[in-house]
Specification:
two-stranded antiparallel sheet; alpha+beta; 4-stranded antiparallel beta sheet; 28% helix; 6 helices; single chain
């Protein structure tokens, strides 16, 4: 979807995907290289790394640049009585790709750039990879834990159906999509 209007780039990506890239493809990719100390470096653009460590480092640096309180969203594990906690811990120690795409803990601030990592509503374009900015964090006044993130998505059609039907005044007034906790079901196999 991100490349849909750039046929040459789509073809280049397909050649890279199938390991049939040309020397010219490599030159095109290398021509886009930019150093973080370059004054034109797009620090707010999507960054992609092969490992989680540099991702976490970059995200934490970006969070530190933002003022306001840091919120920590912690996952809650639920499991049926016939499953042992030891089995759950074994599954949750696996990679995100094997745990429903959800992290154990997410650090967030108002103004942070975010990306959905799971499909919430395909029909409403609330899909894995959809990017936006945290507009507001609703907090439960009793336990001081975040309950809803209001996201201003880059794609103006993301969450449009939800915004047209919600009774949430803040969401409608500011055209920000309320994102509530997501339940991911994980199958445990012997």
């Amino acid at each position: 979807m991100r490349q849909r209007n750039d046929k040459a780039f789509i073809e280049l990506l397909n050649r890279v995907r199938t390991a049939t890239q040309t020397k010219n493809d490599i030159k095109v990719i290398q021509s886009r290289s930019i150093s973080p100390d370059d004054p034109n470096y797009p620090s707010h653009a999507l960054h992609i790394w092969a490992e989680n460590s540099p991702v976490d480092k970059h995200n934490n640096e970006k969070l530190q640049e933002l003022s306001g309180p840091l919120f920590i969203l912690k996952a809650k594990d639920q499991f049926p009585p016939n499953v042992k906690k030891q089995d759950i811990d074994t599954v949750l120690a696996r990679k995100r790709s094997e745990t429903g795409g959800l992290d154990l803990e997410i650090h967030i601030k108002q103004g942070a750039r975010v990306m959905l990592t799971t499909n919430i509503s395909i029909a409403d374009r609330l899909i894995n990879g959809q990017m936006g900015t945290v507009f507001k964090v609703d907090v439960n006044p009793i336990n001081r834990k975040p309950t809803v993130l209001y996201i201003k998505f880059d794609d103006p059609n993301a969450g449009k159906n939800l915004l047209n039907t919600t009774s949430n005044v803040l969401a409608r007034e500011h055209q920000v999509v309320p994102i509530e906790p997501v339940l991911a079901k994980i199958k445990i196999r012997p």
